[in-house]
Amino acid sequence: MKSAVEILDELQNLAIGDSNLRERLLKTRQSEDPLEEFCRVCRELGYELYPMDIVQSGDEFYATMKRSTNGGGENSPVLEGEDDPYEMFFASLEQAEKENRLQQEE
């Protein structure tokens, strides 16, 4: 079974090349519960992904990074945004959408 990070990476690569998929995923951000809606769309696409999977993957990544810096003590640097694969996923899609719009304007 793929991890949440692997699923997000696969979806990100697909969505960057497929404007319809990208638009569908970006629309989930407008939902009353964006994370739940995003996961629902992922499941419709065949990816078993739930909100807690995404939250847990961010927590695990952050904990690993903290342990690897400065011995993992409380003085480890704050890694802002590095613990949120969901937000990083959408930042990448939004950048791809901007680039797509710029290409269409040329």
Structure described in brief:
The protein has 106 residues and is mostly helical. The chain has 5 helices and no strands.
Q: What topology does this entry show?
A:
Layout: H1 4-17, H2 19-27, H3 34-44, H4 51-68, H5 85-105
Helix pairs in contact: 1-2, 1-5, 2-5
Characterize the structure shown.
The termini are far apart. The protein is mainly α. The mean pLDDT is 83. It has helices at 4-17, 19-27, 34-44, 51-68, 85-105. The longest helix has 21 residues, at 85-105.
Structural class call reads mainly alpha
Enumerate the spans where pLDDT stays under 50 for 5 or more consecutive residues: none
**Number of domain modules:** 1
* Share in β-strands: under 5%
Tell me about the biggest sheet? none
**Number of helices in the DSSP assignment:** 5
**SSE series:** HHHHH
First-last Cα distance = 42 Å
Number of strands: 0
Binned, the helix content reads 55-70%
Rg estimate, integer Å: 16 Å
- Average pLDDT confidence is 83
Give structural attributes.
106 residues; mainly alpha; globular; 0% strand; 69% helix
